[in-house]
Write a structure and sequence with these properties.
seven-stranded mixed sheet, about 575 residues, 27 strands, 12 helices, alpha/beta
Length: about 575
């Protein structure tokens, strides 16, 4: 039975102690039994792409455990594969981790910091008769490895002498061996039911320049060999990994034991966080970027952490989402609607409620004084009075949403139509008298009269109106680009086609070039967030905005399909 997490940073004593998840209970046990006297965790990404929403769970869990137990949290790049790693990815990962609030202080490390020690450990294994140089090709290696139901066969070079293995390994290190011609394998058990223990490769030859080490090395350690050594050197106590590493744990333990590390780390696995109908695979994102379908790894339609940040999600909303998903051993899939619920919950009491018209049509108040502008007071957020008020201009010509007017309305349509009276939000009652169409039959102008006695939105004679619409005054408004996003995946068809290609949604982005916004929004800065009344929550794009010309990304609409589960 999977144990779920109600709070990734639950208090170890007192309130919350009864809902502690299985990792907390394992750490409690280790500390109580004296296995460790402190806690040190780490987040060890490979810098071969941007992090995505699933990585946020690992970051927040590892950091949360260190913080909960007054321990330390390390950041470490697993830069053991120079063929795929880029400094661009390292910079992005560092920004993501810091943005999520995972403070690694001055403990930023690299696997390459330990290449000398890893080489010495490999030599130690050879001398102990626990490693040997193999000359099998990749295809032969697969053939000798066996299957899930059949044991593997011993490598023809498995019983080489220690001296010959040391000589050949030195030749590998000194550049005398071509790529793919030799590997160093751990000598464990070719009949093991766990394929990971069938003499895995621990070093391969790769004549490539390394971003940090240059040309010092032409042999590089494999992840399963490097990772436990990195953890041991740094004094990690609990190596928290996702569930696919569970079958690798015996090899993790074998390496730290045979390399004779004292107070070795303990690996504990938890279930990944899966999100429905999103793209997280690095090779798929890379293809979308290279094909120009998205404008980078941080395109707001993706779920990389950089994409979510650019779209307007907050660290607090990501933490809430991770918390709601929980920590367990059972694989589960979350709905994107739950992530949207979290950002709505976070912003509804933080964001100012602003006036913005996305599909504008002009409204003219025929009996309003020509050339006059008055300034009306409006609350910044009705649910949070302490956020104060602001002044907005009001005049003879306004813009309203095109959907707020109908020439021939259906029943129960309470907005503007000929002869109907509605409330202009925080302003006056107006009655529609006429409208103008162009040669294509499109309404271009709506004419109304207003009741000056209804200032503020109430009538002194007590009459009521059923419809309230928002508006923006025309002369002081500014035009802005607004981007409306949908899932980049066609949700009805699923993520992948039978051939492995992506089912892309052709309507994943709608760009509005001439939205009409109230004047205060012209000075909005990158990452500023607002609620556009009736249209959703929006954030200023950090990549394409210019001073005085912000571009707004819709983070999420106001309507939610997510229902909070009953406790």
């Amino acid at each position: 039975m999977a144990e779920e997490l109600t709070n990734v940073n639950a208090n170890p004593e007192g309130e919350g102690a009864t809902s502690r998840h299985f990792i907390e209970r394992e750490i409690d046990k280790d500390l109580k039994e004296g296995v460790y006297d402190h806690v040190c965790t780490r987040f060890p990404p490979e810098p071969n792409g941007f992090l995505h929403i699933g990585h946020a769970k690992s970051i927040l869990l590892n950091y949360g455990m260190a913080k909960e137990y007054n321990g330390k949290f390390n950041m470490r790049f697993d830069d053991t594969n120079p063929t795929k790693e880029k400094s661009e990815f390292m910079d992005a990962i560092i920004e993501d981790v810091k943005w999520l609030g995972a403070d690694y202080e001055d403990r930023l490390f690299y696997a390459s910091d330990y290449f000398d020690q890893m080489y010495e450990d490999a030599v130690k294994l050879i001398k102990k008769g626990k490693a040997y140089v193999s000359e099998l090709t990749a295809d032969e290696m697969r053939e000798y490895r066996g299957t899930l139901t059949e044991p593997g066969k011993n490598d023809p070079n498995r019983d080489r002498s220690v001296e010959e293995n040391l000589r050949l390994f030195e030749e590998m290190k000194s550049g005398k061996i071509e790529d793919g011609a030799m590997t160093l394998r751990a000598k464990i058990d070719m009949a093991s039911p766990n394929i990971n223990m069938r003499d895995p490769i621990i070093y391969r030859v790769a004549h490539m320049s390394h971003a940090r080490c240059g040309d010092k090395w032409c042999i590089y350690p494999m992840y399963d060999f490097a990772h436990p050594i990195e953890d041991a050197i740094e004094g990690i106590t609990h190596s928290l990994c996702t569930l696919e590493f569970e079958d690798h744990r015996p090899l993790y333990d074998w390496v730290k034991t045979e390399c004779e590390y004292q107070n070795p780390p303990r690996q504990i696995e938890f279930a990944k966080m899966y999100l429905n109908n999103v793209v997280t695979g690095k090779r798929y994102i890379k293809r979308l970027v290279e094909d120009g379908i998205v404008d980078g790894w941080d395109d707001p339609r993706l779920v990389t952490i950089a994409s979510l940040r650019r779209r307007g999600f907050t660290p607090e909303s990501i933490k809430m989402f991770v918390d709601m998903c929980g920590i367990s051993k059972a694989q589960a899939t979350a709905e994107y609607a739950m992530l949207e619920y979290c950002i709505r919950e976070d912003l509804k009491l933080k964001a100012k409620r602003m006036l913005a018209i996305l599909d504008p049509v002009k409204l003219v108040i025929d009996n309003y004084p020509e050339g006059e502008i008055e300034y009306l007071e409006i609350e910044n957020n009705k649910e949070v009075p302490e956020m104060g008020t602001r002044k907005i201009p009001f005049g003879k010509e306004l813009y309203i949403e095109r959907e707020d007017f109908m020439e021939e309305p259906p029943k129960k349509y309470f907005r503007l139509f000929p002869g109907n009276e509605v409330r202009l939000m925080n302003a006056y009652f107006v009655t529609c008298n006429s409208f103008v169409k162009d040669e294509n039959g499109v309404v271009t102008e709506i004419h109304c009269t207003y009741d000056p006695e209804t200032k503020g939105g109430d009538s002194p004679d007590g009459r009521k109106v059923k419809g309230t619409i928002h508006w923006v005054e025309a002369s002081e408004a500014f035009r802005a680009e607004v981007r409306l996003y949908e899932n980049i995946i066609d949700e009805e068809k699923g993520v992948y086609n039978e051939d492995g290609s992506l089912n892309l949604n052709p309507n994943s982005i709608k760009v509005i070039k001439d939205a009409v916004l109230e004047p205060e929004l012209k000075n909005a800065q990158p990452y500023d967030k607002f609620q556009f009344v009736r249209n959703g929550f929006f954030s200023v794009d950090s990549k394409d905005s210019q001073p005085g010309a912000p571009i707004f990304n819709r983070i999420v609409s106001l309507k939610s399909s997510f229902v909070l589960p009953k406790k």
